[in-house]
Each structure stands twice: as C-alpha cells, then as structure tokens.
Structure of Cystathionine beta-synthase:
Amino acid sequence: MRYYTSLVDLIGNTPLVQLRSVTSHLDPANAPTVLAKVEYFNPGGSVKDRIAVRMIEAAEASGELKPGGTIVEPTSGNTGVGLAIVAQQRGYRCVFVLPDKVAADKVNTLKAYGAEVHVCPTAVAPEDPRSYYSVSDRLVREIDGAWKPNQYANINNPRSHYETTGPEVWEQTDGRITHFVAGVGTGGTISGTGRYLKEASGGRVQIIGADPEGSVYSGGTGRPYLVEGVGEDFWPDAFDRTITDEIIAVSDRQSFELTRRLAREEGLLVGGSCGMAVVAALRVAERAGKDDVIVVLLPDGGRGYLGKIFNDQWMSDYGFLDTAAGDTVGDVLT
Ligand code: PMP
C-alpha cells in the first residue's frame, strides 16, 4: 500500500509547467523559457501551506503555541486554510480575521475547515480599531492560550521559502533559472525564495516582484485595488527589500485579463495575483534572451474567484471587460 499518514506531508514539491500560449507573441528567435510554479497543487490549494506548517512547528518548539491553544491570524484566506489544516491535525482551534474585499467563497472555505471567521472593513487605516490588524490584536488579548503567527513579521514565513520553494526551483531548473518573478504580499515568498536563489547562483538570478498599482511596494500611496493577497499600504518585516532587483506595478485590469487567459489558454484556473505575476513575467520575457529561464510563482487556484474575475457581470461592472485593448466601458455596452 502506498499512502500518506497526514495531508501535511504533501505540502511543497509543486511542479513547474511551461507557459506556451500567453508567451506566443514573443519573437521565437529570442523567446526565453517561461515556467510557472503551480502552487495550487499544495493540499490547501495555495503557496501558504508552506509557511503554515513552518510557523506552527516553530511556535510549538519555542513554547509559544501550547497543546489545545488557539491560532489567531489576520489573513486573506490562503494562510488561513494552511493553518487550519495543520491546526486540525494537531488539536488547535483557529480564529481568522479577514478584510471585507475577500471573496465570499474564501470565507466559506475557512468555515468549512472548522475555523471561526471575523470580517472587517478594508477602507480603514491599519491603526483603526475596526481594521483587520486591530481586531486580531484584540482577539489575541482576549482569548486564553492565543498565539498569533503574524505572517507579516514572522521570520519562519520567508524561512519556509528559503528552505523549500527556493531549493525546489533551483533543482527543477538544474540551476538554469535566470529570473524569478512573484507577487509581493507579506513579502515572504519573494524574500525567502529570492535569497536562496541569489545565494545558490552567486547573485546571478534576478529577483522581480510584481505589485498591484497603488500599493506602496511599487511607489503607490496604498490606494485600494481589487487583486487579492498582494500589495500593501505598509512595509512588513517579512519583506527583505534588499533581495528584489526590481518591482513591477500591474493594474487590476491587466491582472484579471491575464488571469482569464491562463484558464482559457493554458488550462490553469488560478487566482488574480497569478495573472498579475504573469503580466510582470511577460514584461521580463519581452526583454530577455533565448537562453533565459524565467520562473513565475502562481500562488493559488481560481475556484475562490468564480464570482469575481471569472464572472462577466462583475468584470464589466468594474469596466474590466471589453472587446479590444484600450476600449472604454462604453464600447462594451454597444
Ligand atoms: N497571492 C495570494 C493569493 C496570496 O494569498 C498571497 C499571500 N498574501 C500572495 C500572493 C503573496 O505572497 P507573500 O505573502 O509570500 O508575499
């Protein structure tokens, strides 16, 4: 018999898949190889399973998380799923705090795993008592035996990527990777994977962050954008800014258009931050050479966004859906 005793053992070791259609506009004489690291193959459906297991194990070892304790975390959903799966296996309770822009399906998913969920307004400052950061701090104070992983400041977030994602990408490409592209949320993925790849290649691999237009990472003011899980209005400790060579800003519209193309043309039903990262990867590909190998990390699957990005009405309500690039919403209606 061949089986796993725990789902946790299935975290990581995700495949690389070549992007062949969304890259077809590239000049074949110069086109680099563009490979997607498809993180929805993790058991919780996202890259965040990696940090969940590492953060929990470190907290158990340090004594911060005791048997029967409660995990309290502000999360856009994916970290919650990872934490819920690991917690469930080890007898912890989970309480999650989410911003209200998160898709209803994501909230319901967390509840399905048995977690308790609090939804908070997005359009308030982080220090506002209603913000999802403030509410989670209050819950930590009020609940006995509460532990907050705090993925934004927890060194085990970038460390999990330094120990798993980075070595996987390096080995899967036989050390031929030249560019690594990933969206930046907490910054854990890009900092940990990027640091490993810089070290392994003697500084040769270029590390490129993708960021929603409006987020501070690419020089914005923190104004709202719709793509979920990436961008911020502050600089988290988990993000080591010395690792990235460049940050590319991508609009919601471009992110969502490419997300839809990934499903239709590549068979990859993935989330909006994946489309965003691929837009950035294509910009890199357009100026790269034939021998270059670009790896772009796709953080999650698209099932949680069916009512939004993959819904024509939602897309057209925001003016994202039209017949040709550059058309206005008016053109859609005619
Ligand atoms: N995309 C999605 C959908 C996410 O949930 C996250 C995590 N916040 C990211 C991208 C960014 O990853 P990281 O936090 O490691 O920067």
